[in-house]
Each structure stands twice: as structure tokens, then as C-alpha cells.
Amino acid sequence: MRAVQLGWLVGVWALGACGPGASGWAEPLIAPEDEWRNTPAFLAARGRAPGGAEASSEAPRAQGDDVAPESSSGVAEPDESMRPGEVTEGVERAPEVSRDAAPLPSGAAGGRALGRFKNTYYDFPHQAALPGGGAVPLHDASCREVAEVPGEFYQRLCVQGSGLLSSGETVSFAKRGCACATRCEKTGQQLCFDKLDAARFPWGRGALGKPINALRSLAVDPSEVPLGSLVYLPEFDGLTLPGGAVHDGCFVAEDRGLWVKGRHVDVFAGTESMRLALERQIPTGRGVHVVLGADRCRAAAK
User: Fold this and answer.
1) Quick check: 129 and 56 in contact, CB under 8 A?
2) Tens digit of pLDDT for each residue in 143-202?
3) Which CATH architecture fits 112-125+205-301?
4) Where are the domains of the chain?
5) Which of 186, 189, 194, 287 is most buried, judged by most C-beta within 10 A?
6) Hey, CA dihedral for 39, 44, 45, 47, is it positive or negative?
7) Contact indicator for 228, 203 with CB cutoff of 8 Å
8) What's the rounded Cα separation, in Å, for the pair 268 and 5?
């Protein structure tokens, strides 16, 4: 039985409960509605200190020209290049999902049903867990070296777009076509990366220049799902996660990917172990229904 009618994954990932350097859940993801807004985890995920005002969540601007520029409205314009590669390790492309698959009836979740999309996953690699391969330099968009990392980690970073350095700092994709960068084996691209403050960007930076969140952020094709949209995936509603937490099916479209095209959603799983757990329950390519603006997900906009 669901504990509440409208729950929110309160952002324990942003505190590191199952994220960098941790091994388990610190608190349930679904809290009673009158409690979840004031949990330290939720406040941290929203850029606030308990009892304090909301902090700016804007990303520092990279020096390359591939970081999404802000519009006059203060919202970053969509940028094709914000995340470089595919998603689930070992899966080059997810199989197509038929447009003729039975859609969720429009309005069934209090929003606009777009039909069935293919699904994939991506995660956040840690340098400490991938020590193999020779040393590879990481450069920023101005070709200044920002770190030296193992080749095994570098190749995962090329595909996933963001990762955690052994120093505890986060690196996130900044620009492609960098002549100074080592070529990525899987994508053939030469990528530059920004070094970010892990306290502000514990999981890296999305296509809107803001932090992404594990089990909440989606990479999408903005021609199908506008960036910033609240997205309800009914197949995830009620899904039991490792540790016993239950997902509410609500996500935010706030990232992009090189191969995320058309009717395709790419779920940010956070850790590799969570990605593998999700694969066992809702495998890559099975297909999920996409509903925009579902009433049950309105808390995501606050």
C-alpha cells in the first residue's frame, strides 16, 4: 500500500546515500506529504539549507561554446551537445518501440499521454572503481589539463558524460570536437570536461546547466519532450528499489544525449548497481509510456 498519494524522491542521492562513497540508502525515498518538503535531503536537492533560502543552482559557465546559453527568460536553451554518448553499458542502441503499441489513455494520469517510448539507462562512474588502463589527461574547453585519469574510467566517462574523480570532484561534459582530447573508443569523439564542485553538482550537470539527480532526471529528445517537462512513467510507479524504497514514477526532462533521438527516454540511474537493478525490472528497450504534466508529479515543479 502506498504511504502517500503524492510522493517525491526526496534526493537522498544528492546527499550521497547511495552515491559517491556510500553503500546504502540513508532514508526512504517516499515520505509523508507533510514531511518530505522539510527533510535535509530534499532541501539539499533543491539547493537550500534547512531553514534557509534557496540557493542559486546555475552551473558555472564553461569556456567552450557548447554549454547551453541562457535565454532572456533565464532558462538555458536546448543544446545538442550536453551529454556525449549512449547510456547503458554494452548496449549500443536500444531497439525501437512500435508506435502502434497500445498507448496510455490520455488523461489517465492527469496529463498528456505521448504514447510508448523506448527506454535506456545511464549512470555516474567513479574513478576509484575503474583503475585500469594507462593514464589519460582530461582537458577543459580551453584545452587546459584539469586531471589525469585511468583509461578505463575515461572510456566510461566518454559514454556517460559525468563522473567522480578520486579527489572527490565531479567532472561533466563541456564540449566535443576538442583537438587536445584523447579519442573515445565507443563514440569516436574528442571531448572536453569541466571540473565542478561536487557539493553543487554531486551527479554532474544536465542540459539546462543545472544539477541532475539520480532516479529523477531523464535525458530526452526535446523535439518530443520539452526540456524542463515533468514526466510520468507509469511503469516506474510502485517500482521497489534496492533498500525497499518505492518509486513514484515521476521524473524531470533535464538532460540530453548524442543517441537519445525521437521517442526515447534515458533514465539517470546514478550508480552502476542501481542501473543493473533497474535493468532487471524494466529492461532496456522494453518500452515505457510517457505522460507529460501528470497531476501526481506537480511537486517536482516546486
Assistant:
1) no
2) 999 999 999 999 999 999 999 999 999 999 999 999 999 999 998 999 999 999 999 999
3) Beta Barrel (2.40)
4) 112-125+205-301, 129-196
5) 194
6) positive
7) no
8) 24
